[in-house]
Amino acid sequence: MTHDAVTKLKAALSRVEGERFQVSCEGAVAFAPEDEGARCAWRTGVDAIDTCLPRGGLARAGLHEIEPLKPDDMPSLTGFAFALLCRLGSARPIIWCVTARQIGDYGQPYAFGLSRFGLSSAQIVFVKVAREKDLPFALEEAIKTKGVAAVLGEGARPDLTGSRRLALLCKTHQTPCLFMSPHKDGNRGSAALTRWEITPQMGLEDPRDPFGPGLSSWLVALPRARGGRTLPGLEGSELSNPSISYPWRIVWDEQTHSFCSASLFSDRAAPHGGTKIQPAPETILGKTG
Known about the structure:
Blueprint: H1 3-14, H2 47-50, E1 63-68, H3 74-86, E2 94-99, H4 100-106, E3 124-129, H5 135-144, E4 150-154, H6 160-173, E5 177-180, E6 194-204, E7 215-225, E8 248-253, E9 258-261
Parallel strand pairs: 1-5, 1-6, 2-3, 2-4, 4-5
Antiparallel strand pairs: 6-7, 7-8, 8-9
Helix pairs in contact: 5-6
């Protein structure tokens, strides 16, 4: 990065530092300097997934990687990542660092689409990184910033040394970092605590809105979980059999801001083409966190 670019980045990050930061959006809540929720596990809300993670959830002070089954699946990774960030239950800002190449390949993000994932565009500090090699530096500076809920990175995955630096900073500053990479590279070393593989699935009908776009749905694998249960990746898995329980088929309920198993919405079509819609199952109406 040039000196001017570094100066501008540090100036932008300094504006979100401080213990009194408050997001000015509907539904936002003030936070204390010591967020009590930061010491709890970062749960997905799906028991089958959380039981495979150490302490029943993701570490709130660690590096977590998310990869697509195919590069074309990258847009769906963004939705999954922001759904995970919503589960943090924090109104603090989120710093999103993305390379210019990613924007060229997949387009500019649509900020107002974040409302589907329980977040506001006012929470997002967007950092566009001109060169791929400058992304690790931008992420390091973002993680060091005080008063942020999380850091999201999007671009080429750092090497082992770079990932170790990010993991150490996450632990030091008690800030989680999600990193999305468009290409799988299982042979490349990484200090990430977890690695997720994602591919989108056909959206399921929302029983409360049968004429709407449906519920976002993904097929999720967990090929890396340090201290937890590591499972096979999506590559070579049986993806077409709806009766299998792994890889996990999950949906995002934007009304309750929670993940749930796709099986909760199976066999819910009205008989003989009727229009009667069953109510949503009570098991998905859990609290965020």
